[in-house]
Amino acid sequence: MRKKIVAGNWKMNLDYTAGLSLFSEVLNMVNDEVTGSQEVVVCSPYIHLNSLGQLAKENKSVSVGAQNCHQAESGAFTGEISAAMIKSVGAEYVILGHSERRQYFGETDALLAEKVNAALKNNLKPIFCIGETLDERNENRHFNVIKQQLENGIFNLSEEDFSKLVLAYEPVWAIGTGLTATPEQAQEVHAFIRKEIAAKYDDSIADNTTILYGGSCNPKNAAELFSQSDIDGGLIGGASLKSRDFVDIVKTFN
Ligand code: 13P
Asked: How remote is the CA of residue 202 from the centroid of ligand 1, in Å?
């Protein structure tokens, strides 16, 4: 059985104190909501990770992740953070390939493939994001775009390494816009992604891959999205900044 995950992506929000208090609220509220095949992840800015990692270690129901890492092990890369550093403070996940990194920081599929390798080498699980822009969807190119992102970013991995990934389908037009993909639109793409994984690897790896939906997910639309057969949870932006909303999304698991 593949894992169901609700992951929060705080993006560049919340100072240190505000982040710690949000995380503590989430920990208190989420405790009884999570069972064995489910996981809750909070991906914070780097400054929170050490403290959240400590709290997560004591709690167990919530894991912690970063939102990016550098592809090199270490070295003269002023301002950057390595996968090993992230792992060393108790994080288990790292978001890679988010459309905001692709768009604003010029991250290419080739660079992302390097970052995925760096994360896996340090036992960090990548949450690898893919998704099309509005123009690409309007031109009916979304399946091709997603196929390219898969092929160039992660289909070079061994079966063993691929099995450690979590994928997130985030249509760029749905991120932060309030425009959610309909459950049918999201399910159609998730099924396509799973079919591509089966063709590249095999049915069992495809069946076991957790594929999250992201893009204006909220407590009102989460249950219907997550009830689709190929949607295994969500990557939540704006709604992860309010403990009540985030935990209400987590509760739709049950
Ligand atoms: P929103 O939930 O704010 O649309 O953001 C989604 C996202 O980008 C999560 O990574």
From this structure: 30
HSE, CB side, 13 Å, CA atoms: give it for residue 98. 24
Cross-strand pairs, 70:
82
Q: Decide: residue 184, CB within 10 A, 0-12 exposed, 13-18 middle, 19+ buried.
A: exposed
**Element housing 24 (H / E):** helix 16-30
Token readout for 158 is 């061994």
73 is catalytic: no
67 Cβ neighbours under 8 A, 6+ residues apart? 9, 10, 11, 43, 44, 45, 94, 95, 98
- The closest-lying atom of ligand 1 relative to the alpha carbon of residue 218 is 2
Q: For residue range 55-84, what is the model confidence (pLDDT) as tens digits?
A: 998 877 899 999 999 999 999 999 999 999
Is 80 in the active site?
no
Asked if residues 212 and 5 have their Cβ atoms less than 8 Å apart, the reply is yes
In tens, the pLDDT along 213-247 reads 999 999 999 999 999 999 999 999 999 999 999 99
Among 98, 100, 136, 190, the one annotated catalytic: 98
Distance 172 CA to ligand 1 centre (A): 9
